């Protein structure tokens, strides 16, 4: 596939291609981040094994997030309520909104994520380390 090194180049990646981060029962694959978008956004896929938790409840002070479920059913915490989102479901989570996601089913699940503006990938090494230290 065609890879890119700048925000002005086309970027074409195949399934599961990108920078992969192992987070225990969750795997993140970053398709484009600040290097390819001039930090305007980050795009990643998040794969969750059956009956697995996600990152834990958190919020972002200055970043909106968009999720689109691409496989199975992903449960999302949005504010103070959980929503079971099946394949094809779109969610926009504004900055300062508490959120989380998990797979509460016996099937694999995955969501595409847009993080706006970009830069989230800077956190991935410490997130990978946390999951390695807390299996």
Attribute tags:
single chain; mainly beta; 3-stranded antiparallel sheet; 10% helix; 41% strand; 6-stranded antiparallel sheet; Jelly Rolls
User: Which CATH architecture would you pick?
Assistant: Sandwich
Structural class: mainly beta
**How much of the residues is beta strand, in percent?**
35-45%
CATH class: Mainly Beta
Q: What's the average pLDDT? A: 91
Major sheet size, sense and barrel closure: 6 strands, antiparallel
Tell me the radius of gyration: 14 Å
Give the H and E element order.
EEHEEEEEEEH
What CATH calls the topology is Jelly Rolls
Annotated CATH homologous superfamily: Jelly Rolls
Task: Describe this protein's structure.
10% of the residues lie in helices and 41% in strands. It is mainly beta and 135 residues long. The protein has one domain (19-133): Jelly Rolls, CATH 2.60.120. The strands form 2 sheets. Strands 1-2-3-9-4-7 form a 6-stranded antiparallel β-sheet. Strands 6-5-8 form a 3-stranded antiparallel β-sheet, with no helix packed on it. The longest helix is centred in the C-terminal third of the chain and has 10 residues, at 124-133. The radius of gyration is 14 Å and the shape is globular. The model has no long low-confidence stretch (mean pLDDT 91).
Element layout with pairings:
Elements: E1 19-23, E2 26-32, H1 34-37, E3 42-48, E4 64-71, E5 73-78, E6 81-86, E7 90-93, E8 99-102, E9 109-116, H2 124-133
Antiparallel strand pairs: 1-2, 2-3, 3-9, 4-7, 4-9, 5-6, 5-8
